[in-house]
Amino acid sequence: MKKYSKPIKLILVGFFVLPPLLFNGCNSDRQVSSKPKYIYAVNVELNEIVKYDLKKATKTILIDDRLGFPWRIVIDSQSQRMFWSNVDKNLVQSANIDGTDIRNLGVVSYPQGIALDSKHNTLFIAESGTPQLLGMHTDGSALDTLMDTGLSDPDNLIFDINTKRLYWIDFGEHAILSSDIDGLEVTAIIAAENQDPVAMDIDFNNKHIYWADGASRTIQRSNLDGSGSVEIVFQIQKVTSLKVQPDVNRIYWVDVQKQKIFSADGNGKQISQLVHDPDLGFHCDIFLTSQ
Predict the structure, then answer these.
(1) Can you name the CATH fold of 5-16+26-289?
(2) How far apart are CA 224 and CA 60, in angstroms?
(3) Which of 44, 77, 91, 217 could make an SS bond with 86 (beta carbons 3.0 to 4.6 A apart)?
(4) Measured between alpha carbons, how far is residue 221 from residues 113, 154, 210, 213, 256 in Å?
């Protein structure tokens, strides 16, 4: 396995002292009040999982081009393992956060979105091949179907540990939807004909949804029920991943057309370019960490 670091073009913002925790907006039990030191990313263009060190301005390739097409990634701070969906090999996989000990957890038909309930050692999977939402233990056992009707092309799955609800983008319906973990009480949150959500994350602290809209080429923010939508970032091109860090009121997104990772405050102001990587292309998903 190749594992090496190389310089990348970075423009850095100020950072606070980081506690020994991982954090990311995809799960509401994982939010701490510090800016990220590292960004883990799955890069479909090069079939890699990489780690950007924002302080040292380096990129380390953790898992190389034998991987297939990694699509979405989450990291568990307790087990120090990362989990990702692999749409090429139809697998859910995991490894240590240094890229060692790769494991195949389960065969899933074109898995896309992946979310983590670290408290109960549970993964949630958005399967696109046979559209359904699945659950499994983080060791790959107890694969179960949660929802298998009313789905078209689910992706970008998010779990709220407090309300036990799942949120996802359905690319076939051009909508953001939500249900409980049993697949019941399905609610359409963003579903207007003139909107096309392509990436999203949720600030559960302040009850806001942030999403990149492919139709208007903006990043928008709304209330958790979809009301009060406002455009906050303009002139995006192809955003494939968006993350929220509520405690410091910042959002992060990948624009693969611009080959850059950006950050802004929760109102879309104070935009900073964190990473300029010419290797970014087609699709990239990120996870923010402090280690």
Answers:
(1) Neuraminidase (2.120.10)
(2) 36
(3) 91
(4) 21, 21, 5, 10, 21
Half-sphere exposure of 154 toward its Cβ, with a 13 Å CA cutoff?
29
Mean pLDDT of 85-89: 95
The pair of structure tokens assigned to 92 is 């859910």
230's tokens: 């406002």
Residue 203's alpha-carbon distances to 44, 54, 175, 251, in angstroms, are 27, 23, 18, 10
CA 108 to chain centre: 19
Q: What is the pLDDT of residues 125-151, one digit of tens each?
A: 999 999 999 999 999 999 999 999 999
First to last CA, the chain: 21
Asked if residue 214 has pLDDT above 80, the reply is yes
Q: Residues with Cβ < 8 Å from 134, sequence gap 6 or more?
A: 108, 124, 125, 126, 127, 143, 144, 145, 146
Please list, in sequence order, all residues whose beta carbon lies within 8 angstroms of the beta carbon of residue 212, skipping any fewer than 6 positions away. 197, 198, 199, 200, 218, 219, 220, 236, 239, 242, 253
For residues 32 and 21, the answer to whether their CB atoms sit within 8 Å is yes
Sheet order of strands, 187-190 included: 154-160, 165-170, 175-180, 187-190
Tell me the average pLDDT of the chain: 89
Could you tell me the two tokens for 57? 């301005």
pLDDT band at 5 (very low <50, low <70, confident <90, very high): low
Q: What is the pLDDT of residues 268-289, one digit of tens each?
A: 999 999 999 999 989 999 999 9
Residue 20 has φ and ψ, to the nearest 5°, of -80, 60
